[in-house]
Structure formats: C-alpha cells, structure tokens
Design goal:
Number of helices: 25
Bound molecules: thiamine diphosphate
Structural class: alpha/beta
Strand content: 15-25%
Radius of gyration: 28 Å
Helix content: 40-55%
Largest sheet: 7 strands, mixed
Number of strands: 21
Shape: elongated
Strand order of the largest sheet: 10-9-11-12-14-13-19
Length: 663
C-alpha cells in the first residue's frame, strides 16, 4: 500500500497511528466481553477503521458526524470517555442513553455526533439538515454522514443526495463499501460499476478512494471539506474496504469466499500503516510496544471504571417523563386571556396563515419547508406572500422528497432551528413516515435531544378528492409515543394551537381539515396567543348524550344539536389527540352517562377505540349504556360524492344517537 504523508509531521503521524489502533484494540477487548456475555450485540468495524478515524480527524471537532453501526472510530476520535462508552454498551444507567439504547444507537450534542436509528439511510438527510443550518448561519462548516453500500439502495440515500445538491448544501456523503450488506454481495445490491458514479447523476462531485489507507482517507476528506465550504456544495466519497468479520458477531461469515479474507488481510489498515511507519523510521518496535501497552492499560482502567456503574434504577415515572422535552414557560398569553374586543372574523385557512405569519416574526430561527410553498404559496395558498416577507432562505420549496425534508428538519433542530414542514396533503406523509415515527418521535427518549419540528397536515375528506387526497391518518401517529397530535376545529383554535405547536420543542403533527379551510369562519384574536396543547374545549353542555369528537366531527355534532333541540347533547372538542384531555372526557361522561365518540377517521384502529377503552376502564360506574363509536366506513375514501357521503361517519350519527337514547 502506498502512503503519502504530504505535510504531516512525525508526531502527527504517530497520533494518527494511535487513533487508528485505539478502536482496533477496544474491539478486540469487546470480542472477549461478548464471549463472556457482558455485552449484548456487536457490529465489528475491524478492517474498516481507517475510514471512521480518518474522516473524523479531517473534520473540526464542532462539525457534526452521522455515524453508523461500525464506526467506533468516530466515537473514539471525538474523545468520548471510554468508560462511558463501555457503560453505554453494557446498558448501564450512566451511559449515553440512560440504558435505553444499545450499541451505537445514541448521539451526543457536546461531541457533535448524531445517533443512528437502525434504518441506516435516515442519517443522510439529518446531515443535510445540519449543513443547511451552517449555510443559513453563514458558518464555515460541513457535516458528514456515513452509509454502507447496502444503505445506498434505500430511498433515503437518493432523497438526501438530491436535496443536498438542489439546495447546495455543504455536506459530505461517505459510502463505506465493504462488499457485503449482511449476506448480500454488491452484485445483488446495485448495477452501476462504482457507487460514486451516482454523484454525476445528482449533479455533485465524487471520488472513489482506498478506504484502508488512513492517509488517503484523511487527505481526501480534508480537501473535500474545504471544497464543500468554499463552493457551498455537497460531495460523495466512496471508500473501498472489506468487512473482516460477520455482519454482527453472532451471524458468521459462511457466505464469504475464504480467499477474500486472505486478500484483504494483507490490506489491513492498522498493520499496513504500522509497517510503513516502521519503514519510514517514524516509529520503531519499541515505541509501538509502548503505545500498545498504553492503550491496553487505558482500556483496562476505563473498563474497570465502567464496571463500577450502579444497577439500572427503574422508574416508570421517569421513563414516561423523558418521552417529551419539557415545554418552557413563556409569557405568550393563552387564548383564555385573549381580549374579546380585538377579535376579527377569519376563515380557518386565514387563521392558520396568521398563526404561521406571527410565528415567523416571533422566531427568526423558524424555517418553512414544503412543496411549492414559496412563490406559488403552497397548494392551499397558506404561505402566499411569505417569500416576499421572509425570503427564500426561510421559505423553502422542496423537491418531492418527504422523508428527506423531515430528516432535514431534524438536522436543523440539532443546530437550534425550528422546522415547519408542510405536507402538500396529509396522505403523502406515508413516504416520510419513518423519519417521523422512528427519529423525531424517539430521539428525546433515546438521547435527550428534542426534535423541534411541526408537520402541517392538510387532511380529511368531504371534497370529492378520492382515496389519496382525503385520508384521515391521525391514528397512525397517536400510537407513537414522543409525538404530539393536534387537530383544531375552529379558526381561533387553529391559530392558537399552531402558535403553541411551534413554541413546543417536541415534534407536533398538526392536522388542518381541508374542507374546513374555507367553509368555517369565526372570531380570531389579533394578538400572538397560544391555545394550550392537551386541553379539550367544551362546545356545549348537556345531560342526555355526550358526543366526544374533533375536527369536522365538531361541526357535524353542532349541526346535529341545532337540528335536534329536544336532545340535550354534551359536545367535547378534543383539540389534541395526543396527549388526550382525560379530565374533560370524564367530566362529560359524568354529565350524561352515555357516550358517542365521533370521528371522520375509519372505525377499526381509530382513536375512538382508545377513548372508548379508557372510558370503560375508568368511568364504568357512571356509564348508563355501552360506549358507541361513530366512524367512517372501513374502506378507502371513495371519489364519488354520493359514495363519500355514505362513507363518512356523519351518515351514521343519527343512528348512533338514537341507539343510545333507547337505553
Ligand atoms: C431499512 C432497513 N432494512 C433492513 C435492515 C437490516 N440490516 C441491518 S444492517 C444491514 C446491512 C447493511 O449493509 P450496509 O449498508 O452495506 O452496511 P454494513 O453493515 O455492511 O456496514 C441490514 C440489511 C435495517 N437495519 N434497516
């Protein structure tokens, strides 16, 4: 192997050697611990260390890295205390994730490392988001994300690279091509000759290098870093290497032809570098021995420290509390304090717009992203005029890539920005689902960073838009701890809840019913105010039957009440579906003893099932009849207006009420 020292001095080369040897020796120790059953799972990076180490050394310590499961060298090269890393791998309370995460699935803001989720590809967009933050701040920084060659087959790879190219983001995408994705060889993974060939297709530069040569890796990434900062562009690097052990330690290597191990053994990154240092008289055997001895001792001392960690303290209260970041107290008035005199009549759509507009003024760090939201003003014109007011840096048209945009919003939040993502229609959230439910929702519980992101979801049926522009999919998210799910029914709530959602540091799914946008009007305070998340609204009180509902259901219920003045209806508008306002639900059940839960979402698995279960569990003694769910049919949303009317829950509301009255 050819090493080119360029202008690196001897001491620097020795430092590189130490940095390269450290993860190798830690891993050798880990393999012993694994055999002793003291750690649960281990993905070996043996033979690939030059990539993680070389890349990290080429960056500044405050530049974000998005590593994967084989990148121990990133963590060691960022000087994370080894005892704490051991505690993490052992599953100790005082590791990096409160014993909630395993192996390398954790991050740490102080070290500018963003923890992976198992799904691999999502890391790439987060790196793009951090790069966007650097660009917006005018900082001279890059971010760097790792991908295996297997991970490049994921849509996330395409979306992140394409968006980074279109937005000119200073981010380095680094592929570690180690020959196999679990047992899948490259011939069954992709058809292009080299993965780096894809760079041209994205309109970015790319280079393929020997990933086992620490000096090539270091020098290439150093140069690419300067290029990305200078040109404000992304870059793709493919590092050729080989996985010398099984996918993870239990899975073996039977599918790998043995001669490949022999060939790659000769290219071992640690041994070849050591050999060259000896040859160049930078090191001699004696100093190598001392370095190894030092590292060995360091590992033993740190391991002994790790073994002293206290047993996991199980506290259900703490577990539940850590799912969400605390919401800081603000002096923003809540809607109850808003001055009635200063209300003006607005349609729901205008109230959303006003809430967003005032939030943009309030938060200079708020960035809006979505398809066609800039000059065009968005599919529903909510952001019309925003580009002129706030500029294209903060009001960003996106390519059609929901997953990348949600990931970018998370990356922005790592650097102190607030992100608002507009789904063009709530239906399209399905292609951004993974980032929302696995990354945004879980990150605070996993390693303490809150995803400060609001996802606006124009939702619902009633406008003859067919199966893919009409769905109610809020229940996909109410089942996900870590998200908040908000669903206003009136203009006043739409503005106040949107402001509260943007002020909330947690990820909020914000549902806006399209059919209500222009059909519902009401008084809206002029001021910047919040409607508190998690508090239901008592629409009217009554004693015969409770209708517990939200969104369009609120309007169906009030229309029904107006048409049936002889029935005393108690109507609750939930406003927030996660967390639910159980006090308001109980109070309503106490007043009537009979409950219809009404929603536009389909019946099976809808939030109505959850509320019904809670009422029967907690309010059994005050019920006078079974809880009834009034929901839409368990079919996709049909296009024809006649079919749609039959589909919607409204068609069955009277039957449900009559059934309950008969008890
Ligand atoms: C979306 C997704 N599908 C499948 C898996 C299971 N899985 C974990 S790692 C892996 C192979 C990854 O290969 P590659 O990206 O080349 O990285 P390497 O493990 O070789 O470093 C697979 C299939 C996963 N983690 N995520």
């Amino acid at each position: 192997m050819q090493f080119d020292r360029k202008d690196l001095g001897n001491e620097q080369l020795i430092q590189f050697y130490r940095s390269l040897l450290l993860p190798r020796m830690i891993e050798e120790k880990m393999l012993v611990l694994l055999r002793q059953g003291r750690i649960s799972k281990w993905f070996s990076g043996i033979g690939q260390e030059a990539i993680a180490v070389g890349a990290t050394l080429a960056l500044q310590p405050d530049e974000w890295v998005m590593p994967l499961h084989r990148n121990l060298g990133v963590f060691t090269s960022r000087h994370m205390p080894l005892s704490k890393l051991f505690k993490q791998w052992q599953g100790s309370q005082d590791g990096y994730s409160n014993a909630r995460e395993r192996s390398f699935h954790f991050g740490n803001k102080d070290h500018h490392i963003c923890g992976m989720i198992s799904h691999l590809g999502p890391q790439l967009a987060i790196a793009a988001g951090v790069a966007l933050a650097a660009k917006l701040k005018g900082e001279q920084k890059v971010s760097l994300a790792f991908s295996g060659e297997g991970g490049t087959s994921e849509g996330d790879f395409h979306e992140a690279l394409n968006t980074a190219a279109v937005w000119d983001l200073p981010v380095i995408f680094l592929i570690e091509n180690n020959g196999y994705g679990l047992s899948t060889p490259v011939s069954e993974q992709y058809r292009c000759k080299d993965l780096v060939d894809r760079a041209r297709g994205y309109g970015m530069g790319g280079v393929k290098i020997d990933g086992n040569n620490i000096l090539s890796v270091y020098d290439t990434i150093k140069g690419v870093r300067e290029y990305c900062i200078r040109e404000q562009k992304p870059y793709l690097i493919e590092c050729e290497t080989f996985r010398m052990r099984g996918h993870e330690e239990a899975s073996g290597t039977k599918y790998v032809p043995p001669h490949l191990f022999e060939e790659w053994e000769k290219k071992d990154p640690v041994k070849t570098f050591e050999q060259w240092l000896l040859q160049e008289h930078v090191l001699d055997e004696e100093r190598i021995g001392r370095i190894r001895e030092n590292i060995k001792e360091y590992i033993e001392v740190e391991l002994a420290m790790a073994q002293e960690s206290s047993p996991v303290q199980v506290s259900t209260e703490r577990e539940l509390a850590d799912v969400y970041a605390p919401v800081p107290d603000t002096d923003v008035p809540d809607v109850g304090l808003a001055d009635d005199e200063n209300k003006k009549e607005l349609r729901l759509i205008d109230a959303v717009k006003e809430g967003l507009d005032q939030s943009m003024q309030q938060h200079p760090n708020l960035v809006l992203m979505g398809q066609d939201i800039a000059e065009y003003g968005g599919a529903f014109k909510i952001t019309e005029g925003f580009v002129e007011k706030y500029g294209k840096a903060r009001v960003r048209n996106t390519p059609i890539c929901e997953s990348a945009i949600v990931g970018i919003a998370l990356g922005l939040s790592l650097e102190g920005y607030k992100g608002m993502v507009e789904m063009q229609f709530a239906d399209f959230v399905s292609v951004g689902f993974n980032q929302i439910v696995n990354n945004l929702a879980k990150i605070h519980y996993r390693w303490g960073h809150a995803a400060d992101v609001v996802i606006r979801m124009p939702t619902g049926a009633g406008v003859g838009a067919g199966p893919f522009h009409s769905q109610s999919n809020e229940a996909w998210f109410t089942h996900t701890p870590g998200l908040k799910v908000v669903y206003p029914a009136t203009p006043e709530d739409a503005k106040g809840l949107l402001i509260a959602a943007i002020n909330d540091p947690n990820p909020v799914m914000f549902f806006e019913h399209k059919a209500l946008y222009r059909s519902v009007s009401g008084g809206v305070p002029d001021i910047y105010y919040e409607t508190p998340i998690g508090k239901a609204r008592q629409v009217q009180t009554g004693s015969d039957i409770s209708i517990i509902t939200y969104g369009s259901g609120v309007h169906w219920a009030t229309q029904y009440a107006a048409a049936h003045p002889d029935i005393s209806l108690d109507i609750v508008d939930l406003r927030t579906l996660l967390p639910l306002d159980y006090d308001a639900i109980r109070a309503s059940v106490e007043r009537s003893g009979k409950v219809v839960i009404l929603h536009e979402d389909t019946l099976t698995g809808g939030i109505g099932g959850e509320i019904s279960a809670w009422i029967s569990e907690h309010c059994f003694s005050i019920l006078d009849a079974p809880v009834i769910r009034c929901a839409s049919l368990d079919t996709p949303v049909p296009f024809s207006i006649d079919l749609e009317n039959n589909f919607l829950a409204k068609a069955r509301l009277d039957a449900c009420v009559q059934k309950l009255l008969a008890y």
